[in-house]
Structures are given as structure tokens and as C-alpha cells.
Amino acid sequence: MNVADWKKPFDFDSQYGMGYDFLIRAIMPDYDSLFPTSAGLLSEAVPENGQVLVVGCGTGTELEVFARMRPNWSLTGVDTSPTMISTCREKLAGHPDLCLHEGTLETLAESNPFDGSTSILVMHFIKDDGSKLAFLRQIRSKLRIGAMHIHLDAVAGPGTRGWQTMMRAWKRISLERGLPLDRWESLQAQIDAGLFRVGDARMEELFREAGFTDIQRFWMSIHHIGWLMTAG
Ligand SMILES: C[S@@+](CC[C@H](N)C(=O)[O-])C[C@H]1O[C@@H](n2cnc3c(N)ncnc32)[C@H](O)[C@@H]1O
Fold first, then answer.
1. Which whole number is the average pLDDT over 25-42?
2. Which CATH number fits domain 3-231: 3.30.360.10, 3.40.1670.10, 3.40.50.150, 3.40.640.10?
């Protein structure tokens, strides 16, 4: 492994993507609990044979859990990374009602509006220079009125003492879960260069501006916050 490469901003088509399934569980201890919870929440808006859009489906963890828990849902996964989507394709092989699209939402073929969507650990890689808002508006445009969107990102902290304590503990937790110290250090360099976190108030402002209502937090783990919301 070339340590210099680990310091480049996140590249899902190189080592970062290949090591993703291990890394995410080391740095996000509650990762696996998120998807059954998301399926339960989405079921408020997605009927038995409904359609769900997974934006940034990555290696397919969400899709795999949704396929198992709600076998009659019709699932569409979108991801810009060929490496991530190819791992996802292998994991979901044989699912009867799955569409995987390599690209962005802009290039996704027109379809009936979706009943629900997720964007989990995706938008924090997008700058808040109009691009986050455009991304959320694209998601909103794919949904029927009343559909539910589940959104989770790392957020910027307020810098309070409590927050600093949590950030220090995050390192300890990650190392205890098997992340090597040099990988923790290179991850911090990647975060500095390629993670565009904004505060939770700004996140909620962006959701409203993109046309979402009933915005409600349902999940928090260290600096990750999860929201559910309705397409208004
Ligand atoms: C950290 S992974 C999260 C994957 C999955 N949602 C999970 O929770 O494990 C982020 C994924 O978003 C993809 N991605 C980044 N920007 C995207 C965009 N604009 N549209 C679709 N996918 C995107 C990346 O290629 C990567 O696979």
C-alpha cells in the first residue's frame, strides 16, 4: 500500500473504495443498525410494491438489507463509481427487481416517481457552493409528493468542549475496532481535503430549500446525523 495515495481525497475507484466495507464499520460503530431502521421508516411512505431510489448505493449495503426485508420493493441504485457499483452488482446478483445505474441522478432514465429514497453518507463529499442544493433538488425531483427521503451525512461540529471530547473518543473507538493508527492519520488528511461538512442547521436549511418538509432527526452516531423528511 502506498501511504501517499491514502492521503489523496476520497477516491472510491482506488484503495478507498476497495477497503470501504471494513473501514466504514471501524469508524462508524452503528453503521449496520442504520439500514433496518431506514427500511422501517421508509415503510411509512413506501407501499408493499413501492419503488425506492438509493442515491450513492456504494457497495450495496442498503440495497441488500432492503431486498431482504422488503422483497417486493422495486429498487434502483445510483452511483458514480464503477468499482463501488460493481461490488454492489455482485452482492445483489439475482434480485428480480433491481436497476443499477452507474452515473449521477442527472443521467438516470426517466421513470415513475419514487415512493422513497435514501442518500446515506454521500452529500458530505459535495461542496456547499450550490452543488449540495442542486443534488438535493435532483433527489426531490425524482419523488412523488408525500414520498419519504432518508438522509445521513457527517456534519461540522460546533467546536464546543463536548464536541471535542466526542472527536477524541472517535479515534479511540476506531482504533479499538481494528483501524491501524497510520490509516486513522491518513483518513484525517482525506477528511480535511475532501469532506465538505456543514452544520446541522445549514443541512436543514438546504433540505427545506430543496422542497422537503417534516424534517426530523432519527439517528446520530459521533458526527453523523440521520434525518427523515417528506417530499413537499
Ligand atoms: C461513503 S459511500 C456510501 C455508500 C452507501 N450509501 C453506504 O451507506 O454504505 C458514498 C458513495 O456515494 C457515491 N457518490 C458520490 N457522489 C455521488 C453522486 N453525486 N451521485 C451518486 N453517487 C455518488 C460514491 O461513489 C460512493 O460509492
1. 96
2. 3.40.50.150
Q: Indicate the burial class of 170 (C-beta count within 10 angstroms; 0-12, 13-18, 19 or more).
A: middle
CA of 161 to the centre of ligand 1 (A): 31
Q: At residue 11, what is the residue type?
A: D
CB of 95 closer than 8 Å to CB of 168: no
Mean pLDDT of 123-134: 98
- pTM greater than the 0.85 cutoff: yes
Atom 25 (ligand 1) nearest CA: 81
Residues with CB under 6 A from ligand 1: 12, 24, 55-58, 61-62, 78-81, 84, 104, 120-122, 125, 135
> What pLDDT, on a 0 to 100 scale, did the predictor assign at position 5?
61
Query: What number does the ligand 1 atom closest to the CA of 54 have?
Result: 6
Q: Where are the domains of the chain?
A: 3-231
Mean pLDDT of 23-44: 96
C-alpha cell at 107: 443521467
As a whole number of Å, the CA-based R_g of the chain is: 17
Q: 93 alpha carbon to ligand 1 midpoint, in Å?
A: 19
Which atom of ligand 1 is nearest to 105's Cα?
20
Per-residue pLDDT reduced to its tens digit, 80-125: 999 999 999 999 998 889 999 999 999 999 999 999 999 999 999 9
Query: How much distance in Å is there from the Cα of 125 to the middle of ligand 1?
Result: 8
